[in-house]
Prior knowledge:
By secondary structure, the protein is an alpha+beta fold. It has five helices and four strands; from the N terminus they run H-E-H-E-H-H-H-E-E. It has helices at 3-20, 44-49, 66-69, 78-91, 97-111; strands spanning 26-38, 51-63, 116-123, 135-142. It has a four-stranded antiparallel β-sheet with strand order 1-2-3-4. The longest helix is centred in the N-terminal third of the chain and has 18 residues, at 3-20. The protein is elongated. It starts with a helix and ends with a strand. The mean pLDDT is 88.
Amino acid sequence: xxxxxxxxxxxxxxxxxxxxxxxxxxxxxxxxxxxxxxxxxxxxxxxxxxxxxxxxxxxxxxxxxxxxxxxxxxxxxxxxxxxxxxxxxxxxxxxxxxxxxxxxxxxxxxxxxxxxxxxxxxxxxxxxxxxxxxxxxxxxxxxx
Length: 144
């Protein structure tokens, strides 16, 4: 084995050392299409009758011990996130999707260790005179 070959193996050792010094992976938890029946709308009829909404939620967790431990206790339980979002949507009626999204984002940031939260609420059947697939609003909040 020549000196060039030995240098090649030294480079491999450097790569392995870099692997050991790698930072923890950044974790994002996403929930798509959470279907909730709620009372959101500008008109009294929308708030009285209610309608189905679809929520998409994203929590930027950052480094998360569960990537190593594989334990639910070391991450954010997405079932609990769904329960929290549903509770916010059911606690009161909202006129705007903006307010609902902000309330959900605030609740998630208050209850979970996340750097930021993104909430999208969509009305798949909005009461409009024009045919549309859906209307939606997104709110992004960062932890203080």
